[in-house]
Amino acid sequence: MSKTRFRSDAGLTRRMGAVSLGLVVLYLAFGAVLITVMPNAALAAVVVVALAWAQWYFSDKLALASMGARVVTPEQAPELHGMIDRLCALADMPKPAVAVADTDLPNAFATGRSPSHSAVCVTTGILRRLDGEELEGVLSHELAHVANRDVSVMTVASSLGLLAGFLIRWFPFMGGGRDRNNNAALMFLVVWLASLIAYFISFLLTRALSRYRELSADRSGAYLTGKPSALASALTKITGDMGRIPSKDLRQVENMSAFFFATPAFSRDSLAGLMSSHPPVEKRLEQLAHISADLGRPL
Description:
By secondary structure, the chain is of the alpha+beta class. It contains 13 helices and 4 strands. It has helices at residues 10-37, 41-57, 59-66, 78-91, 124-129, 132-147, 150-157, 159-170, 182-225, 228-242, 247-252, 271-275, 281-296, and strands at residues 69-71, 97-101, 108-114, 117-123.
């Protein structure tokens, strides 16, 4: 985490380290398989690493463009800028760019490779639905993501899954499946299975980290503002309204769902909950209730 007044989160740091270590081990094993059986693995790796670097370096611009969001000035959105100014001063952190996406989907997200190269975006849908305290709670959550460098970590962590997914899809067209002899068929099978396994393990590791980072941002934002009930109210409103958003609109922004403040609710015991980028809503509300009780205790 950057040096801010957000509460430090040792659990998040440990999990980032553990997931990173696990991915390094997985990456080395996966690379060894590719080098052994695939003659043009190096070229594929270079292409995908370059794509991952570009995704990380231009993450703020790519995310805003994918949502059709526009950066707004203090003159265009004085109340929104005022809230972010107050929260940044309270957290002692650089102010990110402020953007608005014109969609009825009630949500918000943070993006950027570092606190000094970041953006916080809200939708017109969330601006219409939340009051001032609720919106401030959501913004404090998103600023915690910026302070934690979440986008950078998640982009790097997902690069192995990107490489594996690339090979699963394109390896048959890269010369691996053209020959019909036994060696070529065996090479194709080994690379395809290794890519599938690497993609699945990488996916589970990054999703687990993503769920924890949402809980961490909830905690950090709630303690910063001292109003966990406002954040809980915003979460309840948004997840309730998500069910009324047309499926077509949700599919259009599916590639951004991991970075949103909230996604459609899943049960903590369901398979969908295990695969989700966000923890169950009831778990987030339960944590906020504990924080509210903690802040209400006499010193």
